């Protein structure tokens, strides 16, 4: 199928080759692959579909073409059933090794990709839904309570969304090229107002990109103002990434302009969730050069290397701000972190973890990324009331700035304390690259300081573009956004 001529074996050859050339492959633990079993596949797919795919290795070319016709933008090579079992098996091997603590995190370099395949249908180069099955697998095998799936591929992983639309234990986030439904797979259900069903309402988060050429600032703004606040409130036990790199510059499908460096930051920003348990699984990425560089940036961060200074952060474009605003209002009723912007750092004396984290994500990180310092100086003052795990989250997140150049001045009392306890100081642990312990599910932050902090944000946002969450479009179309609260306006 000519629509599929970009999903080629060279994608893995160049990705792995770049890891070897940059000395990254040697620093990783290679995990042996296995073939997925029928039971694994049936965690998400139907028996009829599995039986049909099983027959493809024995079909003639004519029969394969005929079989393929019932699905969209996918092909069946006689070997693909075998490859799809290895892709899924590799994903599950990674998840097993992360869950049992044998490795800290990892990237599964696999093809065919998975996020478009549905219960009874192949789609968009995908046969079995590697990541959706991995989420079901960890819930069943390890009793994991909450899984976050971050789909940074440039296409909407509709297969993942359908698998979990009524399941509150799996939070699915996807951004995708949408262009008001003009872009493949052209689904109404990829829009921002589709949020999940029944008990799962609020646990599907769609960020449609209605223009091409989105840049680093657009991606970071969505992380700071949508994904990260919700992810910290959700408090996952495991983070799975549908790691498609067709969202990087030069990709013929995505046509976006984010640079490969951005994946170092996206990865870094997710690494303090779930105690650092993160499994990235390759999805798309069709510009071989951009793909290889993006894969290296992701692995650098997974290995704990400092991230490069983020390039050209000029603030989000208006179309991105419109999407951001729409997603936030669609989800305001499900996530307390979206009800207000920055909360409760002042009079509460930082004793409230959820308010503090919201302020860090919504105010401190956007300012820090835009300012682009060459050194971060973090001072712990006595009596700040910041508990160890919150302090570790802060120290971890700030290491994404200044290429990881950070100098921390700790409160001498807490230092003495930790020597007595003969356990490692939380600051040292974070500087050594350990993930911060999970904060647990965050409750709604107390509302007292909303007004004061909101005033501060209003004053700062004229000069700091990464603080903006509304754009020029609001002036022209504010009347049509009737569910936007006055706080937001
Ligand atoms: N211009 C993944 O990235 N459309 N799948 C192809 C050719 C299908 C993408 C149209 C794109 C599927 C995993
Ligand atoms: Zn894709």
UniProtKB/TrEMBL annotation:
GO cellular component terms, A-Z: nucleus
Name the major location.
Answer: nucleus
The record's Pfam families line, in alphabetical order, gives: Hist_deacetyl
MF (Gene Ontology): deacetylase activity; hydrolase activity
Entry's localization field = Nucleus
> Which family does the similarity line name?
Belongs to the histone deacetylase family. HD type 2 subfamily.
Instruction: Please give the name of this protein.
Output: Histone deacetylase domain-containing protein
Species per Swiss-Prot/TrEMBL record = Anabas testudineus
Q: What is the lineage of its organism?
A: Eukaryota, Metazoa, Chordata, Craniata, Vertebrata
Q: What would be the name of the gene that encodes this protein? A: HDAC10
